[in-house]
């Protein structure tokens, strides 16, 4: 059964230094996939790459070619280790595209999705490694049986088997929340900056002035204004957008160009 | 400003047939990336691939080599179209790694994340296309200015630029919820099947019996039982796991092997 790492984690109070999981690749056949994984690691804040039975990684070859800026650190710092080393030193999460669909089999069930894994690891202090298997067959049953838990990506039942590099990319993307501090994310998961209400009200006033100016049928004005409010409301317009639109509407209402003629 | 497609969608009531967005790739340089995108499309339930100024896709080359099973349908069914065709016929979502960080610039702001985009498109009926740009520079400002909205993947501020194939993979993964019906997902985003409470109670009773049998200090038993409940509670054990553990604990308590000696 799953070994819960929280059971053995010391009570350290609120202190919780970020310690992103290591990433291990077992018996990769294609140097390009190792490079792709290294690049995703750097994109999402991971640095420790462990390779079990890796292919040769020629500095002029595909691994470095696919690694982007990770060719400067993640890839050259990768360490070759044994599968035993992973099992003995880390809380291990195996990844697989092929799961058992019920709870009668332990090897590939229960599994977490990458999103669930991110939620859970957020609250765990333990050295963790996420383990990816070889192209084609992934991790074997024998390998998965030695790992602490199993993670699988939700995908089409018709074709759930992802390419190794793509599976690792998605998994590391989902785990970014435990690897990157919010301040280190280029695009924080924040709401867009909606314009303040007084600005929006000026916008609606200007719309109303325009409707009056163009002699929009009086009995339709309230309904049209409701439509406009809903339309803009759903779009969460920014200050800049409201300002621009307000300028346009004001010109359309007041037609300063005509006065000059 | 963003053109909200819901504004023009007809009132069709609750009927909402799945109509996954099309995927467009503009001026890709590398056939392998087109193949990678085709594979991710098939993994996550997309089928309509549109190519603007594509490289040659040799059936014996990298595009087909990287496409997995998508070499049978998504890739051979891809259509070559113009950028104008996208703008004129679809609600267009441009993707970019480089955004403007404030609301003073329209071209790359506001942006949504892929997860936000999935939430929003879930409630929209309109022909939508998600547009990916060329390797290296992505979509140009001129191209983005003609698209309806912008989407960007949260990534490390130190190195936010994803490879084209990896960016498309993550975006399509996040959009799977609007492309795949829940029944078509190999791994539904469901909770694991937790064993029923009576089974868990039998497990705790057996733990208690074991503590008594091994003369665990009486003053510590309540605390130990609380720890065991918490430990198992967090792990959401399955019926099979509880059954197995119960068997082990019963043997440890009753030691039938000893009785036989």
Automatic annotation (TrEMBL), chains A, B:
Segments carrying the region annotation (Disordered) are 1-22
ATP-binding found in the keyword field: no
Q: Which Pfam families match?
A: SpoU_methylase (PF00588)
Q: Cite a single GO BP annotation.
A: tRNA nucleoside ribose methylation
Q: Which GO terms describe its molecular function?
A: RNA binding; RNA methyltransferase activity
* SUPFAM superfamilies the record matches: alpha/beta knot
Query: Where does it sit, as one GO cellular component term?
Result: cytosol
UniProt KW keywords: Methyltransferase, S-adenosyl-L-methionine, Transferase
**Which part of the chain is the tRNA/rRNA methyltransferase SpoU type domain?**
23-173
Q: Which family does it belong to?
A: Belongs to the class IV-like SAM-binding methyltransferase superfamily. RNA methyltransferase TrmH family.
Q: What is this protein called?
A: RNA methyltransferase
Q: Origin organism of this chain?
A: Natronosalvus rutilus
